[in-house]
Specification:
single chain, mainly alpha, 8 helices
């Protein structure tokens, strides 16, 4: 993440002045999930900035995991209330935060990075097929 020039909530409010599709809390939750997900990386990956960067799929996985932990069975309902209905919505939030300097991205990062993972609402409702969330994977993430 970059050192933001303006506080997170001010950046969120500035974004929402021109695009109010997503609730304020959705932005803060994405930032929190990014932090939790990065902190859960293995030490050898965490210590290397290039390897510490999360892919869209990894961030979505972390968001799903934190949402289930924080909101339980109501996670999908909360996301719908926030206007976050798809992976593309998560990607939009991320790139809006990048534009305000709250998050950083590599030149090759794009919204397409969020399209190659199970849909967030499917994950939150238990309909997604794929590997279990990181906290349920006894072998841990691979590097």
């Amino acid at each position: 993440m970059n050192s933001p020039e303006i506080p997170l909530w001010e950046a969120i409010d500035a974004i929402r002045e021109t695009d109010d599709r997503y609730h304020r809390q959705a932005y803060a939750f994405v930032v929190a999930a990014l932090g939790v997900t990065v902190q859960g990386l293995p030490a050898e990956r965490l210590n290397e900035p290039e390897r510490r960067h999360l892919s869209g799929s990894e961030l979505l996985e972390g968001i799903g995991s934190l949402a289930r932990r924080e909101f339980g069975a109501l996670a999908a309902t909360v996301f719908r209330e926030w206007g976050v209905l798809s992976n593309e919505d998560v990607g939009n939030i991320v790139f809006q935060l990048v534009e305000t300097g709250q998050l950083s991205a590599r030149p090759q990062d794009s919204i397409d990075d969020f399209r190659h993972a199970p849909e967030i609402l499917d994950v939150l409702e238990g309909r997604a097929v794929g590997r279990p969330p990181p906290e349920h994977n006894p072998s841990g993430p691979s590097t």
